[in-house]
Amino acid sequence: MNNLDKYNQVFCETFSVNSDVLGTNFSNDTIENWDSVLQLSLVTSIEDAFDVMFEPEEIMDFKSYEKGKVILLKYDVII
Amino acid sequence: MRLNGKIALITGANKGIGLAITQRFLGEGAIVYAGIKNVAEASSDLNILKTKFDSQLNIIKLNVTESENCKEVFQQIKKSCDKIDVLVNNAGIVSYELVPFIDFEKLQLMIQTNVVGLIKMCQLASRYMARQKSGSIINISSIVSLKGASGQAAYSATKGAVNSFTLSLAKELANSNIRVNAIAPGMVSTERLKQISQEKFGDKVSQIGFGRMASPDEIADICLFFASDESSYVTGQLLGADGSLTI
Q: Residue B217: is its pLDDT beyond 80?
């Protein structure tokens, strides 16, 4: 499984969606059930999947599918 | 053994209460990460424990005011043990001065250590513990946070913050099965307090109902209770241990 597959899998499991809906429009502004609890769950699963640990400000900033990719890049994880 | 196989991180473990907790936990089978500011300056007592318990004791550099250092410590524990069961936030700075003499530079450092550093440690620990759906966080407060003490207004304020943080965190983490409790010791016969008590407190010992200070081991015993499964249904508690002290 490559990084993109792992990344998508976490989103799909966290939000109970199919991978075809993931993209630039997938964010806390567009997804109704994206609340702080789900965001924390998402971030924790991403950390586990890629063996990283985010800073608190990165957790707060992880508010979209695309933003997550940018944050992971700081940890040399290329999606 | 009451902590067999449990992974415990103790801050301020070089001497006093932290050292006693370290010793008690090791004796009960825990694998202990003893956080101290400077590993090169480990106390002889801590080194003796290292000799006795060998790989069961890990003496690590931990300055709770250094956020990056805190993070590294948790990552190291995760890498080595893949879990953390117990966090004891014992590191702290104490001050004794009347309000007109409060040194604000020292106050800032005290807040950074006693409050901000403790919150940082709890934040990191809770993120690992939440994944495990288990854990115990024990914050070392002080009886002056509950009863007040002349000459310790600034210090008691920081410990008051520890108490309220403990109560709220316990509520926030309850659904992750993480317990959060605080111990509020009265006068404990650490070397530091023994030195200071004569010049600052005079005959305060006579105001203790038991007529004596607590030993660090007695505080460690309470800590063991909160760390062990014996307190599996206890969270959000501030346990005073002051031998009936009248401040």
A: yes
